[in-house]
Amino acid sequence: MALETNRFEQIEAAARGGDDEILAFAAAQEGGAAGLLDEIFANMAAAFRPERARGQQADFQYEVSTPDGPLEYFVRVTGDACETGRGRVDSPKLTTRVALPTFLRLVSGRLNGMQAFLRGKVKMSGNTLFASKFEYWFERPS
Questions:
Q1: For domain 5-136, is the CATH number 3.30.1050.10?
Q2: What's this model's pTM, rounded to 2 decimal places?
Q3: Separation between Cα atoms, residue 30 and residue 28, nearest integer Å
Q4: What secondary structure, in 3-state letters, does 13-57 show?
Q5: Which of 74, 65, 124, 71 is nearest to 94 (CA)?
Q6: Closest Cα to residue 84, out of 133, 47, 44?
Q7: What percent of the chain has pLDDT over 70?
Q8: I need a labelling partner for 91 at 20 to 30 A (CA). Which of 18, 58, 99, 134 fits?
Q9: How do residues 34-83 score in pLDDT, each as one tens digit?
Q10: How far, in Å, CA of 74 to CA of 86, rounded?
Q11: How many angstroms separate the CA atoms of 97 and 122, rounded?
């Protein structure tokens, strides 16, 4: 099920705040920061646009730092399917390390991924060319 527009708007509104406000928003969610991230990653499959990723196969690893410690998530794209979950994958094409406030700004569209990378807000290892492809493969609610 896709993230409801109203829920996306709540996350996007929180992403407008400073880091402390974003962290307070995350802490207030069911399950705290982990619950919020679980919800976001679970909804990525619904936002996946397979027609944009034809013939592509890639595993992406996310390491999101939170006040409770780092949380790891993966996104696996296999042409016409997308799978997400908590944990690690072997040999990801791209690993992204990011703080929770920056992550929420990225997924809500409040921050451009390339700008975040150039400013050192996002650390990437692996094939960084896949970062722009990955962003294109998913649609944000409008």
A1: yes
A2: 0.90
A3: 7
A4: HHHCCCHHHHHHHHHCCCCHHHHHHHHHHHHHHHHECHHHCCCCE
A5: 124
A6: 44
A7: 95
A8: 99
A9: 999 999 999 888 889 999 998 889 999 999 999 999 999 999 999 789 99
A10: 6
A11: 6
Instruction: Give the Cα separation of 21 and 65 in Å (integer).
Output: 16
Write out the two tokens for 41.
């990653």
Among residues 39, 56, 42, 22, which one has the least CA distance to residue 132?
Answer: 56
What pLDDT is stored for residue 109 in this prediction? Answer: 87
The answer to whether 86 and 71 are in contact (CB under 8 A) is yes
Residue the block writes with tokens 């109203």? 6
User: In terms of Cα–Cα distance, which of 18, 36, 8 is closest to 139?
Assistant: 8
Torsion of CA 51, 128, 89, 58, to 10 degrees: 20
96/27 Cα distance (integer angstroms) = 22
Residue 6: pLDDT band (50, 70, 90) is: confident
CB atoms within 10 A of CB 14: 22
